[in-house]
Write a structure and sequence with these properties.
The chain is α/β, with parallel strands linked by helices and 554 residues long. It has 3 domains: 12-187, ANL, N-terminal domain (Rossmann fold, 3-Layer(aba) Sandwich), CATH 3.40.50; 260-389 and 402-433, ANL, N-terminal domain (Rossmann fold); 435-543, 2-Layer Sandwich (GMP Synthetase, Chain A, domain 3), CATH 3.30.300. 33% of the residues lie in helices and 22% in strands. A 13-stranded mixed beta sheet has the order 2-1-11-10-12-13-14-15-16-21-20-18-17, with helices on both faces. It has a 5-stranded mixed beta sheet with strand order 4-3-5-6-7, with helices on both faces. Strands 8-9-19 form a 3-stranded antiparallel beta sheet. Helix 1 (12-22) crosses helix 2, helix 2 (39-55) packs across helix 3 (72-82) and helix 6 (185-194) packs across helix 7 (216-228). Residues 547-554 have low confidence and may be disordered.
């Protein structure tokens, strides 16, 4: 009988030391097509790299930045830093050269560990505190070390306490300039430990990891959690395209995966939804609940097989899952799970395992976490506040921003609007700062409108903003899909401008027919380029908003 593991103390050092000793001969990490590393070997490599880091004269509390796509050496580097009292600064792979330089400067990082693939972005960066750059692929030096003084006898064992800082994570930029989220050892270890209360695992489980490890979602639940229980984590050597993912799943047959909504939404739209829009008869068949459920159940069996046939947990987080996509997953009996959290909460606040999911709910508060709705309106909707061991310490060197989100009695203001049902399940309504106040004073949640627009034929993604007092829908078309189904649409869009405007007006009419009176779209803008997104595939709204919402206090 497998039991919940409780590291003592709640530190990342305790976590890795326990796993290396208890699961020595089990496979820890590997590329899908690479040579697996046992937990014993993982421990040895961590010790070896930690000794190298301390030979530079680093001391407890010094920062080490890690800028790379996922690989086994990412795990080695991470634990070499955090288990020895150093502070890890994980940098998202899609950060620009300027953003990386800002992070290195602001965090005072002394070492930069970077993958060969991303090195061109940082090859010219020199910051005041940086003493060395190291290539993650083989732990070789990427900078001139002739002036460095090495001390091979430097002691790498350091006392690490629960309240020591483990990581400074710079946010992905949904609100503009990134902020450094300071997380203690207790915060991240607590989330890894409590993940067991949502979905129990053991050393036989196999994780396929393709979301960035520098994001807290994948870091805590896709890396720390499996390592705590001696499970195996596989990484992709190539970018996670559909063919690469399918081949990987067929080979390793994962039992656990984490994803973002966009991946499943595209799969549903391309493989299920469009097939039943090609004729009136098919539309009628699909709209009938009984036949739709049968179709979804058959499709679900095929989908499950595509995912390797052993999947017991497909976690979806990072953004709200579309209603129709979730309905498909539920009727398909696919083992999806929902999670909700933020970088500032390391990240998990609420979750629902496959057997607990309810349409559009993010589930129950994580055990040991308090959630409350602050100043709810007549419908019970208000800002979600959270308190627990996983809440961040502060924003690094930014007391003003910290004071905006942390109350004096340590409640964290999430900035998300939500409500509870009678069973205390949490439902997310949208971001507080995105909420638009209608002409009659009613709250309009753009995310709800976008969900409807995104389920319109040939729409890939959308963003609803307020401009000059009206709602505007910015829409990215899926031209490839459109070309496959209506050959003339590209001709209409590119050549016949008058028809294009007629088509746009019809699109607006179709969308408004599905919306309430207060949510009517005044204008449709067709995007020429894909939306800029964060690591969790959320659109960077601030880039597209011309006017500030009345809820935006800044």
């Amino acid at each position: 009988m497998h039991k919940k593991i409780v590291p003592s103390p709640l530190t990342l050092k305790s976590l890795i030391d326990y796993s290396v000793s208890q699961f020595a001969d089990c496979t820890s990490v590997s590329f899908v097509d690479g040579k697996p590393i046992t937990y014993k070997e993982l421990g040895e490599k961590i010790d070896e790299f930690a000794a190298l880091l301390f030979s530079f004269g680093l001391k407890k509390g010094d920062k080490v930045a890690l800028f790379s796509h996922n690989m086994p050496n990412w795990v080695i580097a991470y634990f070499s830093v955090v288990s020895r009292g150093l502070i890890i600064v994980p940098v998202l792979p899609d950060f620009t050269t300027e953003e990386v330089e800002n992070v290195l400067t602001h965090s005072e990082s002394k070492v930069l560990i970077v993958s060969e693939r991303l090195f061109p972005k940082v090859s010219q960066i020199e910051t005041p505190d940086l003493i060395v750059k190291i290539k993650l692929d083989d732990f070789s030096f990427l900078s001139d070390i002739s002036k460095l003084t090495f001390d091979s006898n430097k002691i790498t064992e350091t006392d690490v306490t629960e309240d020591d800082v483990a990581a400074i994570i710079y946010t992905s930029g949904t609100t503009g300039r990134s902020k450094g989220v300071v997380l203690k050892h207790k915060s991240v270890t607590f989330v890894a430990m409590q993940s067991y209360t949502v979905q129990p695992i053991n050393h036989n489980d196999v994780f396929l990891s393709f979301l960035p490890l520098s994001h807290t979602y994948e870091n805590s639940i896709g890396m720390l959690y499996p390592i705590m229980y001696g499970a195996t984590i596989y990484f992709l050597e190539k970018l996670p395209t559909a063919p690469v993912l399918i081949a990987a799943m067929e080979k390793i047959k994962p039992t656990m995966m984490l994803s973002v909504p966009l991946i499943m939404e595209k799969l549903y739209k391309n493989q299920i939804y469009l097939k039943f829009r090609t004729s009136m008869l098919k539309k009628l068949v699909y709209r009938t609940p009984v036949t739709r459920k049968i179709i979804h159940h058959i499709a679900g069996k095929k989908l499950y097989k595509t995912f390797g046939g052993r999947l017991k947990f497909f976690g979806i987080g990072g953004a709200k899952l579309d209603y129709y996509v979730e309905r498909f997953l539920k009727e398909a009996k696919f083992p999806y799970a929902i999670g909700y959290g933020l970088t500032e909460t390391a990240p998990l606040l609420a979750g629902a395992a496959p057997h607990q999911t309810k349409l559009q709910s993010t589930g129950y508060a994580l055990e040991g976490v308090e959630l409350r709705i602050n100043e709810p309106d007549e419908l019970g909707v208000g800002e979600i506040w959270a308190k627990g061991p996983n809440v961040m310490l502060e924003y690094y060197k930014n007391p003003e921003a910290t004071a905006e989100v942390l109350t004096t009695d340590k409640w964290f203001r999430t900035g998300d609007l939500g409500q509870f049902d009678k069973k205390k399940r949490l439902f997310i309504k949208g971001r507080l700062k995105n909420t638009i106040i209608g002409a009659s004073g009613e709250n309009i949640y753009p995310e709800d409108i976008e969900s409807i627009i995104n389920n319109t034929a040939y729409v890939s993604e959308s963003l609803v903003v307020e401009e000059d007092g009206f709602l505007v829908a910015k829409i990215l078309l899926d031209l490839e899909m459109a070309e496959k189904n209506i050959e003339h649409i590209k001709l209409i869009i590119e050549e016949k401008k008058e028809h294009y405007h007629d088509w746009k007006n019809q699109l607006k009419k179709d969308i408004n027919s599905k919306l309430g009176r207060s949510s009517q779209i005044n204008r449709v803008d067709i995007m020429e380029e894909p939306f800029e997104k964060t690591a969790s595939q959320k659109i960077k709204r601030f880039k597209y908003q011309k006017t500030k919402s009345k809820h935006d206090k800044k």
